[in-house]
Amino acid sequence: MASLIDNDAHRTEIFDSLPYYDNDLEQNPILREKVERELAREPKPPQTLHPRISPPIELFKGQPGLAAELARIEAHQPLAPLDTIRYQLPAPTSTPGTDEEWQQALKNAQSQLEHQRIRHTNLALLQTYGPNAWRIHNYLLEATAKQAETALEELKQRTTDVNRERKNSQTRIGNQLTSLESKWTELISSILQIEMANVALDAEVDRLNKKEAELASM
Fold first, then answer.
1. Partners of 14 in the beta sheet?
2. Handedness of CA 55, 60, 64, 68 (dihedral sign)
3. Is the confidence at residue 14, as pLDDT, over 70?
4. Checking phi first, is residue 72 left (phi over 0); if not, alpha (psi -120 to 50) or beta?
5. What is the pLDDT of residues 163-188, one digit of tens each?
6. Of residues 22, 4, 23, 24, the one with CA closest to residue 14
7. pTM beyond 0.90
8. How far is Cα 135 from Cα 139, in angstroms, rounded to an integer?
9. Alpha-carbon separation of residue 30 from 16, 19, 42, 138, 205 (angstroms)
């Protein structure tokens, strides 16, 4: 982890963790257990989103039919079977049928005939203009897919570069810390040796002073 300290003259970045370099957990299994126990005591992260994160988008808010279809797909429910009753031509149920029943059957037949006529027209239009429309649509989809793949590859490359730069930086800083720690250990050892030598010299000076006092009193 790193923190920033702003000064008037410069900006200092302080690292308190070097995950690419530190190996204390691998060398000391007891430390790993302590870290895991400490993490277990940490409170769970909040379930609410950060205030800067935009709220989720509600799809098809003004189109209940599409919203219901999306809910069906998310629930992995099968598609409802087609209603074929509207395409049938039922005759009057009574024999002989009444005028009203025959009028209703006639209207239904006229509706079916109009439906077939419109269907034939739509098929003719699709046969004439459909192939080019689908080619253009597929071309646009392929272009969009290529743009998304290119953006993904660029993002992956940037992520790799950031991780590589972070690892190199932390390795370099870790080597510097190790070198400084070794120098610090050597200096501490030298200071201890000097202090021990001073103690020995003080003892020798005291001994010589006592001997000088004894010789002076004789």
1. 3
2. negative
3. no
4. alpha
5. 999 899 888 988 998 899 999 999 99
6. 4
7. no
8. 6
9. 21, 18, 19, 59, 49
Concatenating the DSSP letter of every residue in the chain gives: -EEEEE-SS-EEEEES--TTT--HHHH-HHHHHHHHHHHHHSPPPPSSPPTTSPPPP-TTTT-HHHHHHHHHHHTTPPPPPP--GGG--PPPSSSSPPHHHHHHHHHHHHHHHHHHHHHHHHHHHHHHHHHHHHHHHHHHHHHHHHHHHHHHHHHHHHHHHHHHHHHHHHHHHHHHHHHHHHHHHHHHHHHHHHHHHHHHHHHHHHHHHHHHHHHHH-
| Sign of torsion over alpha carbons 7, 11, 17, 22 | negative
CB contact at 8 A, 132 and 140: no
From residue 118, alpha-carbon distances to 21, 89, 110, 123 in Å are 73, 18, 12, 9
